[in-house]
Amino acid sequence: MGKSYLGEFEELTLTMVGLLGEDAYGNSIVNEIKTRMNRKVNLSAVHVTLYRLEDKGLVKSHMGGSTSTRGGRRKRIFAITNAGLAMLRAMKEVRVDLWKMIPQLGFVKV
User: Fold this and answer.
1) Does residue 67 sit within a domain?
2) Which of 52, 57, 65, 103 is the most buried (most CB within 10 A)?
3) What predicted TM-score, i.e. pTM, was given to this entire model?
4) CA 78, 93, 5: angle at the middle one, nearest 5?
C-alpha cells in the first residue's frame, strides 16, 4: 500500500465518496453510512476525515451551487481522486489476500 495508511473510518469515508459520486457531501455520507452500515456517525467527524483525505490527495472538493432548501448556502462536494481509488484497490487486495490465508476449518463459517 505504499507509504500511506488509512484508518478504518478514513477507508469507510473514502469508500462512501467513491460510491456516492457527485452526491458526495457531508450529510449524504453520514446518511449513507447509517443506511448501509447501520452505524451512527457524527457529521463533524466526517468533515474532519474528508479534509484529512483531501490533504492526503485521496479526494478533491469544490463548492456546489446554492439551493433554497439549504437557505441559499452552498455545499462542498467531494470526489475520489485516482490516488484515492488506487488506495482503495490496494487495501482491498491486501484484505482479499489475508482472507485467503485463513484456514478453512470445518467449524469455521465465514
Assistant:
1) yes
2) 52
3) 0.83
4) 55
